[in-house]
Backbone:
């Protein structure tokens, strides 16, 4: 008679640990694993260790996915029970939770192969212990054009940001001209915030003087070097400029940004009436921050304070959207569509042959929406498939997994409805593209093209009820008929109005509550 195999002690310990992990992640545990956990082991096998946060130090519990859309998350049965270690895992020790929802119409007509879904991810940051460690660098444009009220406002805003830092948060102030220069501390390093360092930093800020050119890439490279020396979990920067990046080519800035990609988040601001939106948008796109323009210097203090307070409220860094797709399914695009439009399509980091992680930056208690569009193999009437599994990857954990499905049918009552969220963000993306195309055509003197594109933008904004966007567009066009998209280009507008419109085009509004299923 064949005797059942007796699990080893390590296999029993691994099964027991699997149960603990599943409880933490809200997953069900297979019955066979529970049975193994109740047995007595027979001897040692291969050794691998866990950290106290519950993830394998050399990789999580194995995750494989077959082409039919099934995922096997069974922990290896040859895993040794961990010895107690106090490895730091920010997302777990700070009790950061994530929730996700999929918004889609799962039904496709036979012959159709494009499926769109909006993924809404909400971070529930419940800090029951110390907040994540943080480090922040503030870059202040001190070029010659900053003389007067703009520099005075920048000083006041920087001081407000310094006062908003928690004790022990590492910080530094950088002066930006044709090169990046340390303001505080004098040496190239960062110091923890305290009453003493805040007072010294404020004195150094008061001594700032305007003079020189503008090479934003050099400021970012100094900031990168400063933050590279920090072990902080949240690494953040603020960049303020009032002019064009005149002392540096666009290619040089692009190279600097590429060096900084993935290392810290940067919020950029233009002040006054002579800055350019293009470098600010490039910074926001690459470093996953916000970009805005303030024509009134008096608004800068509140803005810097709000940015810094938001950073102090962050609960998780290096959060990714993890996407699995089966063989034959192609991701057409993946975009963050709220609160700002950021194209993530080409930024996926492969985890395995069919899984990639897409960076989403730092999170506090907030919601972000993502638009995932896929091309799938053709199906027959009645076919059903899982075409994507989406989860949140943070701190070694995989949370809030949801699936995207497709059902093929000839029932038009099922295929005709358009999901409100997908329609909403498709419209907002089209609106942004129309604005960018119109501004580019206007800058190159193509009046007819610019008029048509900006007219379409006004029409889209009016149809969607985006009064603020219509009002911003009215800075660059005279609106004759919103519904028809009839406009005339303004001849007497300020140059900064086009820059403000360009930045506004990347911001989005969420769907109204009554429109959500």
Residues:
């Amino acid at each position: 008679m064949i005797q059942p195999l007796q699990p080893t002690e390590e296999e029993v310990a691994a099964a027991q640990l699997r149960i603990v992990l599943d409880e933490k992640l809200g997953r069900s545990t297979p019955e066979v694993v529970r049975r193994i956990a109740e047995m007595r082991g027979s001897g040692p096998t291969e050794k691998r260790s866990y950290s106290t946060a519950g993830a394998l130090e050399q990789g999580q519990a194995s995750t494989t996915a077959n082409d039919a859309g099934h995922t096997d998350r069974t922990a290896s049965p040859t895993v040794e029970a961990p010895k107690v270690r106090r490895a730091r895992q920010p997302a777990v020790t700070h009790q950061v939770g994530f929730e996700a929802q999929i918004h889609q119409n799962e039904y496709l007509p036979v012959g159709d192969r494009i499926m769109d879904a909006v993924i809404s991810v909400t971070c529930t940051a419940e800090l029951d212990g110390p907040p994540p460690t943080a480090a922040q660098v503030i870059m202040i444009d001190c070029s010659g054009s900053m003389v007067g009220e703009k520099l005075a406002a920048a000083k006041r805003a920087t001081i407000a940001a310094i006062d908003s830092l928690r004790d022990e948060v590492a910080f530094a102030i950088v002066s930006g001209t044709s090169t990046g220069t340390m303001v505080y501390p004098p040496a190239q390093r960062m110091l923890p915030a305290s009453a003493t360092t805040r007072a010294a930093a404020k004195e150094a800020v008061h001594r700032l003087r305007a003079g020189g050119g503008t090479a934003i890439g050099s400021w970012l490279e100094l900031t990168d070097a400063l933050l590279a020396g920090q072990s902080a979990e949240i690494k953040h920067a603020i960049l303020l400029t009032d002019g064009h990046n005149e002392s540096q080519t666009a290619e040089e800035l692009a190279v600097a940004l590429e060096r900084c990609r993935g290392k810290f988040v940067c919020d950029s601001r233009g002040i006054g009436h002579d800055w350019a939106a293009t470098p600010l948008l490039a910074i926001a796109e690459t470093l996953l921050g916000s970009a805005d323009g303030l024509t009134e210097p008096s608004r800068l203090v509140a803005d810097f304070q709000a940015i810094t307070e938001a950073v102090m409220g962050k609960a998780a860094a290096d959060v990714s959207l993890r996407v699995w797709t089966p063989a034959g399914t192609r991701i057409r695009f993946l975009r963050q569509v709220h609160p700002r439009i950021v194209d993530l399509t080409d930024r996926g980091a492969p985890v395995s042959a069919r899984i990639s992680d897409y960076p989403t930056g730092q999170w506090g208690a907030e919601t972000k929406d993502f638009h995932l569009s896929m091309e799938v193999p053709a199906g027959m009437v009645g076919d059903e498939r899982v075409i994507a599994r989406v989860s949140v990857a943070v701190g070694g954990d995989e949370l809030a997994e949801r699936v995207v499905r497709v059902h093929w049918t000839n029932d038009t009552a099922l295929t005709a409805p358009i999901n409100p969220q997908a329609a909403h963000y498709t419209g907002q993306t089209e609106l942004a593209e129309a604005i960018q195309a119109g501004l580019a055509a206007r800058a190159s003197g193509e009046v007819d093209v610019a008029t048509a594109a900006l007219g379409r933008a006004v029409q889209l904004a009016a149809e969607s009820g985006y009064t603020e966007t219509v009002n911003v567009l009215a800075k660059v066009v005279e609106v004759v008929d919103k519904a028809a998209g009839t406009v005339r280009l303004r001849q007497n507008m300020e140059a900064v109005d086009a820059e403000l419109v360009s930045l506004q085009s990347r911001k989005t509004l969420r769907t109204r509550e009554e429109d959500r299923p």
In short: The chain has a mean pLDDT of 86.
